[in-house]
Structures are given as structure tokens and as C-alpha cells.
Amino acid sequence: MYFKSRLLAVMIAAGSTPFAMAGDGNITFNGLINSETCVVKVNGAGANAAVVLPTVAAKTLGTAGQTAGLTQFTMELTDCGDVSKKAYAFFEAGSTVDPRSGNLKNASGTAKGVQLQLIDVSSTKPDNAIKVGQESQRTATTQIATTTDGKGTLPYGVQYFAEGPITAGTVISNVTYTIAYP
In degrees rounded to 5, what are phi and psi of residue 3? Predict the structure, then answer.
């Protein structure tokens, strides 16, 4: 009995003693909260706008990976202030984004086998598709310099992207964006 009591006391004491561990390193996090943001107009219509793609025949998207109907749009920035010298749009992840492809799902349209792909039209890279919701946008997307009077234009595009056999119908999706100031 005495042995069990002593064993129990040792176990309780060991459990309440803090473990001594040496740290392996230190991580410092740095950030910036910008006091100024730009006013955004998509194709001159305001921060929330619709971009209408052309009607294309399903047969033009007959093979997975084919694209059609590239439609350019711009995001005009004004009143950026002195703090913002460069800017780009970061397209956020969400329920309409296919995390595998980085494209936009046909969220509420009736066509099957098609997605929408955002394009960085100012990029000279062979694969200028924007991977929506992915961190690679921070370095892969072209950053534009704002002018001394706080203005700039971000040129983008959107196109149909075949992910498999296509059936005719409507294509409707959306994406949330944030203007980033690197």
C-alpha cells in the first residue's frame, strides 16, 4: 500500500512539473495596414460589375483544355494616394472556385463541362492564366505602377475553358477580389 501511494505521488509530481525544452528557432511576422485604398471601377461601372462573354458554339470547346471567347476587362484605379505605388487584383478563393484548376466553376448556369478562366492579359508569360484563390497570384500576376496622381489600370481577361465534354447552356459565375498593394 505504501509503495502504491508513493508511486502515485511521484506520478502526480511528474505530471505537474513543466518540461524543460530548448527552443529551436524564432519566427517574426511583419505586415502593413495601409491607410489608403484605391477607388475601383470595373469597366467603368463601379467595384461590382458584370462582364459579358460572347456566345460560342459548344464544338469550339470540343477538347478538354481548349479555350474560347476571350473577353478583356479593366479595373480602373483612382484616388490611390501616396501610399500605394503598385497594385494588382488578388482573386479570392470561394465557393465558385475550383481549387484544383484555379478556374471559376459554372456556379449557376446550365452548361456542363465548362469553367471560366481568368487571364492576366498584361503578362508576356506563355501561361498567363490566373490561379484563382492560390497564393501564386502574388508573384505571378503583373503588378502595375500607379501614377503620381494616384491612378492606374489593371487589364485582365476571362474566357471559357473546357474541362470535359461540353453541353450547351448558360455559364454564370462570380469571383471576389481584393486590390493588393505590394
Answer: -65, -40
